[in-house]
# Entry
Amino acid sequence: MVKNAVEDLDNLEDSFAGSLVTLGANHPVRADFSPDKCTSFIQAVLSVWKSVLMDKMTPECSVAWEVLFGYMLMKMKIGHVDRYAW
# Structure
C-alpha cells in the first residue's frame, strides 16, 4: 500500500483513498489493528526507517513520511468507523 501511495502522490484522493477506506474496514479483523494503535505504528515505522536510512532520513524526509502515513491512517480510520460504529 505504501508503494502505491508514493507512486501516486499527486492523485491520492481519486486513485487511492477508496482502497484505504476499505483496508481500514478490514484491517482490525485481519490484523488486530485498531485506530488506537495508529500513532504507535507510525512512530515505530519511522524509528526503524531512521535507523536503517541514517543520514538519508533528513528531518524534511521524516515529516513527509509522517504526513503520508497520517493521510493513509486517517482514511483507514474512516473505513473502521463506518464498519464498526453502530
DSSP finds five helices and no strands in the chain. The helical segments are 2-7, 12-15, 17-31, 38-53, 59-84.
